Every structure is written in structure tokens, then in C-alpha cells.
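ok trying this again, last paste got cut off
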Amino acid sequence: MRIPGGADGRRLLAISFVDRVGSGLWGATAVLYFTYVAGLGTAQIGILLGASGAVGIAGPPLGGLLADRVPLRPLLAAVQAVRALASLSLLTTTDLRLLLVIAAVGSLGDRASSVLTKLYATRVADDERARYQAINRTAANLGWAVGGLAAAGALTGAGTAVYRGLLIGDTLSFVLAAALTLRCGEPPSPAHVVTTSATARCPGAATTPAEAAPAEAGPAPNPWRDRRYLAYTATEIALFLDDSVFRVGLPLWAVTATTAPHQLVPLLLVLNSVLVVCFQVPFARFGTTPSAARATLLPLAAAFLTGGIALAVSAADSPWVAGAGLTLAATAFTVAEMLHATVSWELSVALAPPPAQGAYLGVHGLGQAVQRSVGPLAVTAAITTGSLGWVAFGAGLAAMCCAQRRLVRDRDGRALSVPSVTVSEH
């Protein structure tokens, strides 16, 4: 398989895989570590994870802002090093106050790393960013699976040393990711030089002084003053809710409101990973251009609505109907996840002016970060409301897709169309 971005694109895939292996090790055991090693109670763990997650919301805009001002490669490596230090520091204390500070720093690094990795991939893959995003998500999901399986195997052992070992493994993944990052080249930045798309397509064409003017000739656009981009980011908070459906909503609904066997829950999560690995790359064709991405918002709406209805049906008093409903819901929300990942990557870049691409993508990163805080509340509200709650949940996300489709069109009503120069061309 040809990887967009050349050698740096391949290295970034390795970085994503290694990073997610570590995340799989820690994500599967974090609560157990804080319970059996740090000796925290349930309420204290909730405070720790909630507060650190809230602080992490600042990570994407901060990382994006810095990316427009300093070289991206060393910045990404430094953030990986901060994550490693924060992870290792958790081993040094059981004091809740110190753990809060350490976890907050780690959360900031996690969220900043996410947007910086996206920005690097966008720059090295250029016009093939949709395909690269799909391949990158596949590598990341494989990493999650490997890390989770390794954690499950390690937990067959006894004693707190196992939890400490898994945390050290998470730390080493960040160290290796930082080392691999330093082997990458610095990608061209649209904040430095931007040429016209016509010149990029026809290297022999003449370039006027105005066309070759540096991007810094005027003040860089400010995403916090761009009402359309802020509104777009606000709609993204809702469309990222598939994450909370799989983390909280589907497992909790399955065991509390359906007659399906509890053993089905982990199988549904495996189904999610398998579908992403198998189909994320083919789904990349739905986001090859801004117009294609905008058109995909309609099937995305249908997927969300189908998932909500299927969860409502799964409450039927029949294990077979419940199992079928949960399986259909997991499939529909996975399809929604893959479609939205493709659409979101393309539109977030296409709507970002080149001179402030990092700042804009940092603001866009707030959508996923905020969802991680409010998403569990949204899905638990649907659960407490019952079957009608899930129908309303799916219909609400479908309506948000339609609202976003209207939002991202050009002012004259045509589909959004942004030339490839919005990424980086010299």
C-alpha cells in the first residue's frame, strides 16, 4: 500500500501506532491503578479524571497557536516528552492534590499532541490528506487493540507491580514516539510561504509579486473572531458523540435496559475496532474534496438516526431482538464514526486560512475535547429517558449534520470549494 507523505508519512504512522499501544495499556488499567496502587476512592477517582479532562480542553488551542509560531517537529517531540514525564510522575505519589496536577499536565499534553499530529499529517500528505487520515486511523486502532490485549494478558498476574509495569509501558511509548518524531523532517508550513494554486499545478507558469507575497504580509486570521468556524466547531461537539456512545452509552444501556447477554458488550467493542480497521481506508473517498465531505453529511445523518432507533428497539423484551438491535446500533455508530472522521478532517482543514492553520485546527480540536467532558452526560441522559431518549438522541445528531451541511456551504449556496493551497504549497 502506498503511503501519502513519503518517508515522513510512514514514520508518523509508526508514531501513531506506538502512541496508541501505550494508550491502550494505560486506558485499560487507569482506574485499577488509582484504586489499588494510589488507594483512591471512587469519588476521588471521578474528581481526578473529570478535573484533568477539563484542563485538557485547553490543549488543542494552545498547541495549535504554538504550531503557527515555532517549528512543528520539535514542538511535537517536546509535547511527547511532557506526556512521558507526566506518566512517569504518577508513580511518585499517592497524594490526590499532586496526582491532580500531574494528570492535568498529562491531559494537556494528550490533547495538544492530537491536534499537532493532525497538523503534521495534513502538511506532509497535502492533497491526499483524506486518504492519509484513513490509514492513520487504521494504524491507531491497531495500536489500541495491541495495547488493550497486552494489558489484558498482564492483568492475569497478581500484585500492584503489574499496574506499575503497565504505566511504565505507557511512559516508554511516549519516549519512543518522541524519538521517532525527531527522525522526521520539518513539514512545509503555509504560514511561511503560500503560492497560488495555479502556479502549484503549473510549475512553469509565471508568478507575479502579488501572488508570491509572504503570508505574513498582513495580520493572521483569528479563529476566535471567525463566527463561521466557531459555529462549525460547536456542531462538531455533537458529532463527536459517537465516542461517548461506545465508551459509556452502549455498554451501560446493554447491561441495565436490555435482555441481551452481558458477554455481548465486549464483542460489540471488538466489532467497532474490526470495522474501522477494515473500512476506514475505503471510506476515505467520501472526503477527498470539501464538496464530497459536505455531501457525506447526509449519509452521516442517516447513520446517526439508524443507531439511535436501533438502541431504542434493543429494549424489547427478547434477548434475540435486543442482541440484534445492539449489533445494528454498534454497526451504525461505527459507520457514523468513520464517515465523521473523514468529513471532519477535510472540512476542518478546508475552512482554515493557511496563515493561521495551526490556530484554527487547535480551535477545532476543542470539539472533541469538550465532547469528552459533556458526552457522558448526554448519553446517560438518553439512557435515563429510555427508548424515546435514544430516538431523540439519534434525531438530534441527524439534525446537527443537516445544520453543519448548511453552515459549510459558500455564501452563494454552492458547495464549499477550497483549492489545495489551503494546506501547503511552495
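PB: full thing came through this time. The two ends are 27 Å apart (CA to CA).
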